[in-house]
Design brief:
179 residues; alpha/beta; 19% strand; globular
C-alpha cells in the first residue's frame, strides 16, 4: 500500500513539473500568450510624461509596435532596454514604435535608471496591471511584437543577447500583411 502511494505521488509530482508546452493541450487550457496572427489585445496606457497623450494600440496602426515590460531591478531588462532604445531610433522612419511598460517597480527609480543609461523610450504605466494580464505576462523582461495590421507577431521572454532584437525587428518591419 505504501509503495503504491509513493509511486502515485511521484507520478503526480513529475506530471506537475512538466511545462504546459510539453503536455498535450486541452481545449480548456489558456494559451501561454496571445498567438501569432491573432488580434493583439487592445491597450490604453498612461505615459509618465504628461505632455504626451495616452498610448494606445489603435494610435499606432500601420506601425510595428514593441511593448516591453521591464523593471530597473531586473538584470536582463538592464541589458535589453538600451538595445531596444537604440533600435527604436534607428528604425523609427521605417515604422517601429517601442514602448517601455514599467512593471513592479518604483517610478522615480525607473526614471533615474533610464536617464543614467540614456534610454529614450516612452515610459508607460499599467495601472491595475490590466495590460500585463491581457498579454498573459509571466516574467521580466517580456516583449510583445505587434505587426502593422495589429496582429501578434511574436513574444520574447528574457534577454536573448546582443543582435537578437535587430534580427527579429528587421523581419517584422519587412513583413507586409496580405492585401
Amino acid at each position: 500500500m505504501r509503495i503504491a502511494f509513493a509511486v502515485g505521488l511521484c507520478a503526480l509530482v513529475l506530471n506537475s513539473c512538466t511545462s504546459s508546452t510539453e503536455r498535450s493541450p486541452r481545449s480548456s487550457e489558456t494559451p501561454r500568450f496571445p498567438l501569432r496572427g491573432s488580434a493583439a489585445p487592445a491597450w490604453h496606457l498612461s505615459p509618465v510624461d504628461s505632455a504626451q497623450g495616452a498610448a494606445t494600440l489603435a494610435a499606432d496602426s500601420g506601425h510595428v509596435v514593441v511593448l516591453t515590460f521591464w523593471a530597473s531591478w531586473c538584470g536582463p531588462c538592464q541589458e535589453e532596454l538600451p538595445e531596444l532604445s537604440r533600435l527604436s531610433a534607428k528604425y523609427r522612419e521605417e515604422g517601429l514604435r517601442v514602448y517601455a511598460v514599467l512593471h513592479d517597480d518604483e517610478l522615480i527609480t525607473a526614471q533615474k535608471w533610464m536617464r543614467t543609461y540614456n534610454v529614450d523610450l516612452p515610459l508607460l504605466l499599467d495601472p491595475g496591471k490590466r495590460t500585463a494580464s491581457a498579454y498573459l505576462l509571466l516574467g521580466l523582461p517580456s516583449a510583445y511584437v505587434i505587426a502593422r495590421n495589429g496582429t501578434m507577431w511574436r513574444k520574447e521572454e528574457g534577454y536573448q543577447g546582443p543582435g537578437h532584437w535587430e534580427r527579429r525587428l528587421r523581419g517584422a518591419l519587412a513583413w507586409r500583411p496580405p492585401a
